[in-house]
Automatic annotation (TrEMBL):
GO molecular function, one term: serine-type endopeptidase activity
A biological process term (GO) from this entry: proteolysis
Organism encoding this protein: Seriola lalandi dorsalis
Membrane-traversing stretches: none
Protein name: Peptidase S1 domain-containing protein
Keyword set, alphabetical order: Disulfide bond, Hydrolase, Protease, Serine protease
Keyword Hydrolase: yes
Length: 244
């Protein structure tokens, strides 16, 4: 459990323009996703140690964790889901309001939010992304990583994790292991490309048992479960981006 890309490859500049680095006192701590020019989605557990917005900022528009060439914008407000449970990680999602709007460009774009009734098909190919450890117990990577994963059937994942897995969580990866999110990836997106060509955020990186272990895929906050809560703060948004 806890702050939580194994088996990935380097991402190209502009390929994942919604992925940002969330920084506490200037240091990469978690990932987050741009959902419009003013708002980001991340994981609630990233803020358990320090919920004060004044200590946080985001680095946008760069694939480098060092932030070279990135735009840095302070965070004005951190809104934790009111039902977040730090014990079992249910409703592990937070909304972050930027101090100034992010200037959209080739390297800074929003990802689409699904409707509350959208269904992401099991075995659909999606992507996990982040600057987290490339192996369990390893150090963070400086170059943004991406890995293709499959959405795992809820019953199969329940078999691995038992009743800890709630309907507000979803699993992605491979039951045989090998590709997974890891320490430092928390709060980043699980994104899936739809037939329209647009990329949608299906999950927010939350927790797991180790990184890339056989039988224990990564667990993500199910965005459709928290979509109505998100919509109370966000207006309709444009989105785009490209991966692959």
């Amino acid at each position: 459990m806890g702050s939580r890309v194994v088996g990935g490859e380097d991402a190209r500049q502009g390929e994942l323009p919604w992925q940002v680095s969330l920084r506490l006192h200037g240091r990469h701590t978690c990932g987050a996703s741009i959902v419009n020019e003013r708002w980001l989605v991340s994981a609630a557990h990233c803020f358990e140690s320090d919920p004060s917005p004044s200590n946080w900022a985001v680095s946008l528009g760069s694939v480098l964790r060092s932030g070279m060439g990135a735009m840095v914008i302070p965070i004005q407000r951190v809104i934790i889901h009111p039902a977040f449970n730090g014990t079992n990680m249910d409703h592990d999602v937070a909304l972050l309001e930027l101090a100034v709007p992010a200037p959209m460009s080739y390297t800074i774009q929003s990802v689409c939010l699904p409707s509350a009734v959208h269904h992401f098909l099991k075995n659909a190919e999606c992507y996990i992304t982040g600057w987290g450890s490339m192996r369990e117990g390893g150090s963070l990577t400086n170059l943004l990583q991406k890995a293709a994963v499959r959405i795992i059937d809820q019953a199969d994942c329940q078999h691995s994790y038992g009743n800890v897995l709630t309907p507000n969580m979803m699993c992605a990866g491979y039951m045989e292991g090998g590709r997974d999110t890891c320490l430092g990836d928390s709060g980043g997106p699980l994104t899936c490309r739809q037939l329209s060509g647009q990329w949608f955020i299906a999950g927010v990186t939350s927790w797991g048992h180790g990184c890339g272990r056989t039988g224990f895929p990564g667990v993500y906050t199910r965005v459709t479960s928290v979509r109505k809560w998100i919509s109370t703060y966000l207006c309709k948004q444009k989105c785009g981006g490209q991966v692959g």
